[in-house]
Amino acid sequence: MKLSSMIVAAMAATCVLAGQGLAQSPTKPQPSASPAKAAAETMKGQHSMDGEVTKVDAKKGWVDVKTPEGRMKLHFPPAALASVKKGDRVTVEIGMTPGPATAK
Fold this sequence. Notes:
The chain has helices spanning about 5-15, 35-40; strands at about 15-20, 45-55, 60-65, 70-75, 90-95. By secondary structure, the protein is an alpha+beta fold. Strand 2 (about 45-55) and strand 3 form a beta hairpin. It starts with a helix and ends in a 7-residue tail after the last strand.
């Protein structure tokens, strides 16, 4: 069973990493029809990796993935991992957006 599309959708929805805050307030994207499109419009960096699932804890929402770039431990809503199993080939897509500015 190929789970690439499920993992990609889950990554787009849940694993957008927070970057360092900018000196200025970030601008808000205009509302769009698709949350994935809105996320893509504000991303400062994106990366896609093919890999293999090496461990799954579906009850807690954790999955370990081995890729040519290295190993990753990722968290998803537990329901998203219900059909994921060790040995599945997946594609992981991650993106980074600026986080909120912090006062010093």
